[in-house]
Amino acid sequence: MKRFTIILPLALMLIAPGTFLAPAAAQAPEPRPFVPIFNGKSFDGWNKVGDVNWRLVPDPAGDYAEADKGSGFLVSANSYGNFTLKVEFWADTPANSGIFIRCADPKTITADSAYEVNIFDQRPDPKYRTGGIVNVAEPKMKVDAGGKWHTYEITADGDHLTAKFDGVVTADGRDSKHASGPIALQYSAGVVRFRKVQISELRD
Fold first, then answer.
1. Are 49 and 106 a contacting pair, CB within 8 Å?
2. What is the mean pLDDT of the chain?
3. Using one digit for the tens of pLDDT, what is the confidence trace for 186-195?
4. Which one has a higher pLDDT value, 16 or 159?
5. Closest C-alpha to 143, from 156, 134, 154, 152
6. What's the angle, vertex CA 135, arms to CA 129 and CA 140, rounded to 5?
7. What value, to the nearest 5°, has the Cα angle with vertex 85 and ends 77 and 78?
8. Among candidates 147, 145, 183, which has minimal Cα distance to 46?
9. pLDDT, tens digit (0-9, with 9 covering 90-100), for 52-78
10. pTM for the whole thing?
11. Parallel, antiparallel, or unpaired for β 192-201 and 184-189?
12. Residue 70, burial from CB neighbour count under 10 angstroms (0-12, 13-18, 19+)
């Protein structure tokens, strides 16, 4: 009996791994660390589209880009596919703005050629107001941006799109029209500011 007890563990060690144990479940891709892509100190890495009067404003809490006239975008020179994007923004109550991702054409940006996470408290049709992803997911609750700094955290993972407003999920939907493209920060009305734009790309 003692001889059998010694041989059996040795035999088990020689058996190919996985014979008795179920294979481990596939793990979801892990995000890379967040890296800044706009720090409010320069427009390097971004292109101006339209006639917006973008200007850089120094601030102890974080330098930012501000606009209050014109119409257009700040568009990233780089394209991104699957990622989580963090953006701090300030908008007054009349502001019409948004964060566009996976833009198909960096020179002609619309909610049909990209995904727009809206910043528009006074949108005439409130279906996709602040907190929503236009044409994809209505906001789960009413949130207002006017007059305070807020954070959007936007995740695009395949066809799954989510938006968090100050840490709370306000929109969650699926759409597969746009797989990758630049990021665009919009100005259309009111006063709008953007700072501390960071991205974490998903590992393959």
1. yes
2. 89
3. 999 999 999 9
4. 159
5. 152
6. 50
7. 15
8. 183
9. 999 999 999 999 999 999 999 999 999
10. 0.85
11. unpaired
12. middle
